[in-house]
Amino acid sequence: MLFSRHKNHLPTPEEALKGRPEPGFPVPDRHTVLGNPLTGPYPEGLVVADFGLGCFWGAERKFWQAPGVWTTLVGYQGGHTENPTYEEVCSGLTAHTEAVRVVFDPSVTSYSALLKLFWESHDPTQGFRQGNDVGTQYRSAIYTHSPEQQSAAETSRAAYQSVLTGSGYGQITTEILPAGPFYPAEAYHQQYLDKNPAGYCGIGGTGVSCPVGVAPAEG
């Protein structure tokens, strides 16, 4: 992954790169593992959830393997630059984090189950990094699509903080905010570890289990 001198500073809207009004590259039509469309509109009844937990290559695989997940795609979220490129995000001058969009069937799984997978799949106490990956684009984040998701995410954060503290970890640095624009990443990033099974994966959890049932919201 790329590094930059801006890796520990989130730029303001005035400092951020301006971006472009339209995407600079095409996005594949379908998921290489699940076979479903990557981008919406999605079938009625499915629910969208967005997570940032470090390098999105390994993060996406965690979610596409989960029961009830209809499709996943990776992209850039939480920043200021319109339609950024990977190189721009890695420069530290867009304020985006690497994110995974998860579209799931609430009759099969739940937002609570996805939150549990999110917390247990990375170390949310590291600030602008995940392990050896250093930079603002690797920060932990949950971007919510309803007041119910926001409440569930905040409740789960408090519950997980309690068990992390008991295991000797510091404060959770995960940002939980209403979802803004999600910009899909370049084609080669989508389902990267399906296309490159031996590829880089920097995702690793704390080994501390998140309490089950801490997030009752389904959508």
TrEMBL record:
PANTHER family: MITOCHONDRIAL PEPTIDE METHIONINE SULFOXIDE REDUCTASE. It holds the Pfam family PMSR. Keywords: Oxidoreductase. Residues 1-26 are annotated as: Disordered. Its EC number is 1.8.4.11. It catalyses: L-methionyl-[protein] + [thioredoxin]-disulfide + H2O = L-methionyl-(S)-S-oxide-[protein] + [thioredoxin]-dithiol; [thioredoxin]-disulfide + L-methionine + H2O = L-methionine (S)-S-oxide + [thioredoxin]-dithiol. Has an important function as a repair enzyme for proteins that have been inactivated by oxidation. Catalyzes the reversible oxidation-reduction of methionine sulfoxide in proteins to methionine. It is an enzyme of class 1 (oxidoreductase). Residues 50-201 form the Peptide methionine sulphoxide reductase MsrA domain. NCBIfam families: msrA. The keyword Transport does not apply. This is Peptide methionine sulfoxide reductase MsrA. It comes from Streptomyces hygroscopicus. The active site is at residue 55. It comes from the Bacteria. Gene3D superfamilies: Peptide methionine sulphoxide reductase MsrA (3.30.1060.10). Belongs to the MsrA Met sulfoxide reductase family. The lineage of its organism: Bacteria, Bacillati, Actinomycetota, Actinomycetes, Kitasatosporales. The gene is msrA. The keyword Oxidoreductase applies.
